[in-house]
Specification:
The complex is a heterodimer. Chain A has strands at 4-5, 10-14, 19-25, 30-38, 45-51, 56-59, 62-67, 72-77, 86-94, 102-103, 107-112. Chain A is mainly beta. In chain A, strands 2, 4, 5, 9, 10 and 11 form a six-stranded mixed sheet that branches. In chain A, strands 1-3-8-7-6 form a five-stranded antiparallel sheet, with no helix packed on it. By secondary structure, chain B is mainly beta. Chain B has strands spanning 5-7, 10-13, 19-24, 31-38, 42-50, 53-56, 65-71, 74-79, 88-95, 106-107, 111-115. In chain B, strands 2, 4, 5, 6, 9, 10 and 11 form a seven-stranded mixed sheet that branches. In chain B, strands 1-3-8-7 form a four-stranded antiparallel sheet, with no helix packed on it. At the A-B interface, strand 5, strand 9 and strand 10 of A face strand 5, strand 9 and strand 10 of B.
């Protein structure tokens, strides 16, 4: 059973608008969450993270929100740009596992010019 | 730094053949991870090493899969015999150490494996 789920396999957004990517998890021991971005023919690269002691972390156009009670996190990209088109993976770690990550299935974001 | 280097980029083989995937981690990184990406299951951790020692191979799907890390700069993932359901993208990643938050994983570009 997947402990980290990204229920939307794809998302299409117009340039300049907000992109919202969602992620749900089932393991209550997870306490650190990350988003990785993957371009075609490249490996995933780290984008942004959040610890369970926070409910929001912002880095430029990227903001991650964490709702622990709902076991849900989301990545907001504002404004979206065509260069943001990629596959986004949600990942989680916990129970003193450090950087041992459990990944979701990914969401393909397409930002249309 | 050249980053994590994987070879080959693409591998096409026939069912029953042995396949060997190679990885060179970033110099100075002590931890190495092998992941597999499939449409159905996303990114799955297969095995990881710390200081060249396999720590957890519980993600390795079957005995047909084996991984080695003979030294700090080289690791292999072998599938013998290969089967069509092994077709996937295999990623290698490294980090300075394992088990520490904020230690980011750096991924290679992956090997696209197709087993016919």
């Amino acid at each position: 059973d997947q402990q980290v789920k990204q229920n939307s396999p794809s998302l299409s957004v117009q340039e300049g608008r907000i992109s919202i990517l969602n992620c749900d998890y089932t393991n209550s021991m997870f306490d650190y969450f990350l988003w990785y971005k993957k371009y075609p023919a490249e490996g995933p690269t780290f984008l942004i993270s959040i610890s369970s002691i926070k409910d929001k972390n912002e880095d430029g156009r990227f903001t991650v929100f964490l709702n622990k009670s709902a076991k849900h996190l989301s990545l907001h990209i504002v404004p979206s740009q065509p260069g943001d088109s990629a596959v986004y993976f949600c990942a989680a770690s916990g129970n003193n596992a450090g950087n041992m990550l459990t990944f979701g299935g990914g969401t393909r974001l397409m930002v249309k010019p | 730094d050249a980053g994590v280097i994987q070879s080959p980029r693409h591998e096409v083989t026939e069912m029953g053949q042995e396949v060997t995937l190679r990885c060179k981690p970033i110099s100075g990184h002590n931890s190495l991870f092998w992941y597999r990406q499939t449409m159905m299951r996303g990114l799955e951790l297969l095995i990881y090493f710390n200081n060249n020692v396999p720590i957890d191979d519980s993600g390795m799907p079957e005995d047909r899969f084996s991984a080695k890390m003979p030294n700090a700069s080289f690791s292999t993932l072998k599938i013998q015999p290969s089967e069509p359901r092994d077709s996937a993208v295999y990623f290698c990643a490294s980090s300075r150490q394992v088990g520490v938050l904020n230690e980011k994983l750096f991924f290679g570009s992956g090997t696209q494996l197709s087993v016919l």
